Amino acid sequence: MSVNFHQLTKVNLQNKKALKFFIPQLFKKEGKFFESISYIFCSDEYLLEVNNNFLQHDFYTDIITFDLSECTFAPTIGEIYISVDRVKENANTHQTTFELELHRVIFHGVLHLCGYKDKTKKDALLMREKEDDCLSMYFE
């Protein structure tokens, strides 16, 4: 099991060791197994290009999660792209700290890999509850 962080755009990610310990616990809590997750921190422009090329979406987003697992029953292999620019803007919009918003998005990616969706209003509300739970557990 591995959790890796790659910075295409500089980000002040504090306490990586704690995150590397906590993320597997989230999978376990959800009854899921994982092999590896790579977080790629990037710019708005980089993530817009990923969004265009792979999802045919022409808009900015804070996160794109790819499940690269071989099948549904295999341990999860994931790539999670996070726009540092978008996280900063969302932190300002939601009047929260960059650190808290960054962790919300980091956990959001894990939740997607665990099967949670956020396209409908009902699903988005559940996702937000799960994110809040993750933040409470991590920062307790």
Structural account:
- By secondary structure, the chain is of the alpha/beta class.
- The protein has a single domain, classed as Metalloproteases ("zincins"), catalytic domain (Collagenase (Catalytic Domain), 3-Layer(aba) Sandwich), CATH 3.40.390.
- It has five helices and four strands.
- It has helices at residues 16-29, 44-55, 84-93, 98-113, 121-138; strands at residues 2-7, 34-42, 63-67, 76-83.
- Strands 1-2-4-3 form a four-stranded mixed β-sheet, with helices on both faces.
- Helix 4 packs across helix 5.
- The longest helix has 18 residues, at 121-138.
- The mean pLDDT is 95.
User: At the fourth CATH level, what is the homologous superfamily?
Assistant: Metalloproteases ("zincins"), catalytic domain
**CATH T-level topology:** Collagenase (Catalytic Domain)
Low-confidence stretches: none
Domain module tally: 1
Strand content: 15-25%
End-to-end gap: 24 Å
Main sheet makeup: 4 strands, mixed
Task: Identify the overall geometry.
Answer: globular
Radius of gyration: 14 Å
Q: Using the coordinates above, name the CATH class.
A: Alpha Beta
Class computed from helices, strands and strand pairing:
alpha/beta
**Number of DSSP helical runs:** 5
Identify the strand order in the major beta sheet.
1-2-4-3
The succession of helices and strands, N to C, reads EHEHEEHHH
* Portion of residues within helices: 40-55%
Mean pLDDT: 95
Tell me what the CATH architecture is: 3-Layer(aba) Sandwich
In total, the number of strands is 4
